[in-house]
Amino acid sequence: MDGMEIRDDRAAGRLEAVVDGEVVGRVEYFVLDDPAPALVPVHTVVEPAHEGKGIAGSLTRELYALAAREGTVVAPLCPYVVRWAARHPDEASVADPELPRAAKQWLAEHPERF
């Protein structure tokens, strides 16, 4: 989408799509440290007025690019990201199957996070 900026708010655990100063979509994630470093997307949200414009796909593509730049992987729990990765295997590296299991355990131990 033209005119869209994607920014990483690591402290808040959000990758945000911004259009004209307004956050119109986001991927909420956390950083898993153990058993290996990974970015773990949990939710993808696009504001209703902006649905169907490719925002969720752009956010997900940037999440995988961010992970690659950081030398880590994405271990998706978000159903949208899982589906996107299956449709874009050339852009979405596959994480070790242990990472999503560890991420689910982390979420169970931190229910206040999401």
What is the end-to-end distance?
A: 28 Å
Total helix count? Answer: 3
Give me the strand/helix succession. Answer: EEEEHEHH
Biggest beta sheet attributes: 5 strands, mixed
Multimerization status:
single chain
Beta percentage is: 25-35%
What ranges have pLDDT less than 50 throughout 5 or more consecutive residues?
Answer: none
Topology, element by element:
Elements: E1 4-9, E2 14-19, E3 22-32, E4 38-46, H1 55-70, E5 73-74, H2 79-87, H3 98-109
Parallel strand pairs: 4-5
Antiparallel strand pairs: 1-2, 2-3, 3-4
Task: Describe what is shown at a glance.
The chain has 114 residues and is α+β, with helices and mostly antiparallel strands. It contains three helices and five strands, in the order ββββαβαα. It has helices at residues 55-70, 79-87, 98-109; strands at 4-9, 14-19, 22-32, 38-46, 73-74.
